[in-house]
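User: Just a sanity check before I run the rest of the batch. Below are the structure tokens for the first item. I only need the designed sequence back.
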């Protein structure tokens, strides 16, 4: 039987993350507070929004632990500068990158509704197979009703067709999308600044649309990563189109965030950060070399 309990996702290298290690050295309780905040969001489907007080009470934390998490960039207060996280309301805290790694409330709701529809359709098929004439029994007026399963299948087919039409319309370059046009124009200007010859086409439009509609990034976040990709010594010669930008977006985002982080203040922290940056750089270079070799 499937396990229906709510869950949260943690990377197996969670405790080896430089941010977590730095906080752990200062206060293990603060790390417990961060874990508690992720679990709370997953349990109550808050999409990364919490209140600091209950998290302190859960693990016996203090205001100093809250400060540690905020300064490490693991929690965000209203007015934060993170490009990838929404602003919480006054008195609230946002858990950094929560929806990047965990299910959103809308996603859970859609999955639940899809499961109910699937179970209903399966039950109707089994019912029809066991008694194929049940839905065609004569009514009091001598007429015959249409099978309920048939009408359900027709409705599902119509819904699929409607979604296909909407997707086709959204992917058409003729559809007016100022957000997509802005990304294409902005990326084109970045390539021009590097004297790169290019010709935006339908594949640029599709990639920009998918970054927004499917991957869930805002135009501001996309252009933030694009600016990094077209100025970094390694990536600027490899990222020459929006489809390539989307293909490498996760690696580019991690690299851009690492570059924007404040430098560690102590010798031990500096050595730890250098090791982490070298590891990320090596991964990015290997990925780029594999791509070029392909």
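Assistant: Here's the designed sequence for the first item:
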């Amino acid at each position: 039987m499937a396990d229906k309990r709510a869950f949260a996702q943690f990377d197996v290298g969670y405790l080896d993350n430089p941010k977590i290690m730095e906080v752990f050295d200062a206060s293990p309780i603060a790390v417990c507070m961060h874990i508690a905040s992720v679990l709370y969001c997953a349990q109550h489907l808050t999409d990364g929004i919490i209140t600091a007080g209950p998290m302190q009470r859960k693990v016996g934390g203090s205001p100093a632990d809250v400060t540690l998490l905020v300064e490490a960039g693991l929690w965000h207060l209203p007015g934060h500068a993170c490009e990838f996280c929404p602003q919480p309301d006054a008195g609230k805290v946002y858990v950094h990158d929560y929806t990047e790694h965990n299910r959103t409330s809308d996603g859970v709701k859609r999955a639940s509704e899809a499961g109910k529809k699937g179970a209903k359709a399966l039950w109707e098929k089994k019912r029809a197979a066991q008694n194929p004439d049940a839905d065609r029994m004569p009514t009091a007026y001598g007429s015959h009703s249409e099978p309920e399963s048939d009408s359900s299948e027709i409705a599902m087919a119509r819904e699929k067709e409607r979604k296909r039409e909407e997707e086709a319309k959204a992917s058409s370059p003729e559809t007016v999308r100022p957000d997509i046009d802005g990304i294409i124009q902005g990326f084109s200007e970045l390539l021009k600044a590097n004297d790169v010859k290019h010709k935006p086409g339908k594949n640029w439009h599709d990639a920009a649309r998918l970054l927004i509609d499917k991957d869930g990034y805002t135009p501001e976040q996309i252009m933030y990563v694009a600016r990094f990709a077209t100025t970094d010594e390694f990536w600027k010669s490899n990222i020459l189109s929006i489809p390539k930008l989307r293909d490498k977006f996760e690696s580019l985002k991690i690299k851009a965030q690492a570059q924007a982080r404040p430098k560690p203040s102590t010798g031990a922290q500096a050595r730890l950060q250098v090791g982490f940056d070298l590891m990320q750089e090596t991964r990015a270079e290997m990925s780029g070399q594999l791509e070029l070799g392909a």
